[in-house]
Amino acid sequence: MSNQNNGGAGVLLAFLAGAAVGAAVALLFAPATGSETREAVNRRAREGRDRVLEALRQGQGIVAAQRESIGNAFDRARERAQAGVRDPEHDA
What we know:
Order of helices and strands: HHH
Largest sheet: none
Structural class: mainly alpha
Shape: rod-shaped
Mean pLDDT: 80
Helix content: over 70%
Number of domains: 1
Low-confidence stretches: 1-5
Radius of gyration: 23 Å
Number of helices: 3
């Protein structure tokens, strides 16, 4: 399961890095004054930061939900083990 999460994080990081480089190159080659370019770079940086923060918030929510789901599964398994109940899926 951790391999899937790491792969997704790597793809997200590569996408964000590519977007940042592309935006920087486009701004450097665009005909604009220095102050306009600085303003555009600052705006893009803020937008990128906001996107990363939102992705982190979503990721934290997913992790919390998975942690709760796994905890519930362990609790049910422990209760069954303590009660001596056999798991019909495991016996099949």
